[in-house]
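User: Fold this; tokens only.

Assistant: Input:
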Amino acid sequence: MTDAVPEAPPSDYRLLVPRDWFRVDLTQERWRGQLKTYVDREFAGSRSPSEAARNVWVALRNTAENGRSRGALEFFLRSESFEGSALPASLLISWPPMSRGAAPAPEEFAEVLAHRRGPEAEVDVIDIPAGRTVQVRGKTTLDFHIRMPGDVGYFHLSFSMPLSGTDSPMGDLCDAMAHSLRWV
């Protein structure tokens, strides 16, 4: 049995994220420094060329900047290999700005996303404890668009697992993290 989803817009959210995932707060100006700390830590003692660390930094910075322009709040990163990886698993949490009442119904939104993502993605409308959700599963990405209480739009959890893919224990972990979302 799931908790009832509130009818009023939430003031915050709670999401269970494992402790070994590195958090970057995209709402604060210090996010670039946090991201650099992650990259420096991942490449410390590595035999990888400095150019590899620079490329990872640029890719992650571009992802964060693009996310910030679309309402991103937090960015979580975790290396998928024991030696560190140029391709970390990640979670980007966003709440894109939308006028109250302007969000389409989940079924309509699923159709739009299915058309946009093409036949390689599985698009489904599911129920999770936080509410009706449009889930989009690709080979290495797993997105959850959760309809927010109070008809204030969709909350977006975007997972990327470039090494393991979505059909893996990492994919299962990401799915469990999305199902842990609760409104405050």
